[in-house]
Amino acid sequence: MQVPFLDLKAQYEAIKPEIHQALQAVIDKTAFAGGPFVTEFEQAFAPFCGCRECVGVGSGTEALWIALRALGVGPGDAVATVPNTFIATAEAISFCGATPIFVDIAEDTCTMDPHLLEDCIQSRLAAPKNGQRLKAILPVHLYGQTADMDPILELADRYELAVVEDGCQAHGAEYKGRRAGSLGVAGAFSFYPGKNLGAYGEAGAVTTNNTTLAEQMRIFRDHGQPRRYYHDVVGWNGRMDGFQGAVLKTKLVHLERWNDARNEKAAWYRRQLADLDEVVLPGVADYARHVYHLFAIRVRHRDRVLAALTEKGIGCGIHYPVPVHLQKAYAFLGHRPGDFPVAERIAAELLSLPIFPELTEEQVAYVAASLRDIVTTRNR
Ligand SMILES: Cc1ncc(COP(=O)(O)O)c(C=O)c1O
């Protein structure tokens, strides 16, 4: 049996006529750059996230950057985030001219540890580094589960820091019944094709309840022009494509069902792997509605297990093998192994198993049985 890590073709086959109709409508209207299909999607995605506003842009990376920038993050500022994320989280901070500072994670959820955030804020206040001023917090809702937001928001309030959520893996995830993207002052989403809500190309969006901020971001993503060829600020071309708006609006209708299906697959894995001491299953916090963008287990001798699963025709991933503070690109920050021990330990053990809405019970059973066979045989 072959089990791909992700099967975008299966999803496309299930919604083919709707997608073709949506794409044809964009062609008929020649509304390719921004335009009505993007607006329609924005008007649907904002309430989906429990927000008043949504601003469609070119990618999740751009959404993070535009949100931070609109909040005034710039040179001389620092932004607190986590080291176990896709590099884009840190890149967005860097492209504001600011510096990412890292906070280690809670081991069970792999998201920002609020206690360590408090330590970080206090040590920065006591001894500011290179004159940098901590301006914002950028927690990452990793794998489809939000960070523990109430204590983070409370600290943000106390120390007057802005909170931008990296919701790029968490479309529809909930924290105590509130949706990802509505918890901080802004939320950034990626619609990279493999995400829970994926475009047919690159796309992203910022959600917010702050109408003034949304307006600023709308103007910025369109060359700083509130009116065509009247440029009030130096802006950027960050418009979402018309095709992506149309595809995303079409797919959004199915997202709840797809997220439920992901939860079903996760429950199957849990049932079949629960008794395996060699495998640590992903933790789910009491506060969370998880949407399982990824199903990241932890195993010892991860690389050998990964190779053996690959040999059995099972597609797996590692999210992520090297924490951001140890990436070459961020060597200039001067971090060393041991600086963020939880993120580093976990990076060596993480293994993402296939999870997507169309995954069958037989495929999950095959993955679980193969994994059992590999980890228990090795121990004999
Ligand atoms: C946590 C996280 N942040 C940011 C991004 C960047 O999004 P994009 O690839 O759309 O630029 C991604 C996705 O790739 C992500 O997973």
Structural commentary:
The chain has 380 residues and is of the alpha/beta class. It folds into 2 domains: 8-251, Aspartate Aminotransferase, domain 2 (3-Layer(aba) Sandwich); 255-379, Aspartate Aminotransferase, domain 1. The chain contains 11 helices and 15 strands. The protein has helices spanning 8-29, 36-48, 60-70, 88-94, 114-126, 149-158, 211-220, 242-273, 302-311, 341-347, 361-379; strands at 53-57, 77-81, 99-102, 105-106, 111-112, 133-137, 162-166, 174-175, 178-179, 186-190, 204-208, 279-280, 288-289, 295-299, 350-353. The protein has a 7-stranded mixed sheet with strand order 1-11-10-7-6-2-3, with helices on both faces. A 3-stranded antiparallel sheet has the order 9-8-13, with no helix packed on it. Helix 2 (36-48) packs parallel to helix 8 (242-273), helix 3 packs parallel to helix 4 (88-94) and helix 5 runs parallel beside helix 6 (149-158). The two termini are 26 Å apart. The mean pLDDT is 97. The chain binds pyridoxal-5'-phosphate (PLP). Pyridoxal-5'-phosphate binds next to helix 3 and helix 4.
Supply the key terms.
Aspartate Aminotransferase, domain 2; 2 domains; 11 helices; 41% helix; seven-stranded mixed sheet; binds pyridoxal-5'-phosphate; alpha/beta
The fraction of residues assigned to DSSP E strands is: 5-15%
Output the structural class. alpha/beta
Question: Which spans of ≥5 residues are poorly predicted at pLDDT below 50?
Answer: none
Order of helices and strands: HHEHEHEEEHEHEEEEEHHEEEHHEH
Q: Which fold name is given in CATH as the topology of the largest domain?
A: Aspartate Aminotransferase, domain 2
The CATH architecture category of the largest domain equals 3-Layer(aba) Sandwich
Please give the oligomerization state of what you see. single chain
CATH superfamily of the largest domain: Type I PLP-dependent aspartate aminotransferase-like (Major domain)
Heterogens: pyridoxal-5'-phosphate
Radius of gyration, taken over Cα atoms and rounded to an integer in Å: 21 Å
The largest sheet, given as strand count, sense and whether it forms a barrel, is: 7 strands, mixed
Classify the helix fraction into a percent range.
40-55%
Total number of beta strands: 15
CATH class category label of the largest domain: Alpha Beta
Specify the overall morphology.
globular
Q: End-to-end span in angstroms?
A: 26 Å
Number of domains: 2
Count of discrete alpha- or pi-helical segments spanning 4 or more residues: 11
Order of adjacent strands in the largest pleated sheet: 1-11-10-7-6-2-3
Mean pLDDT: 97
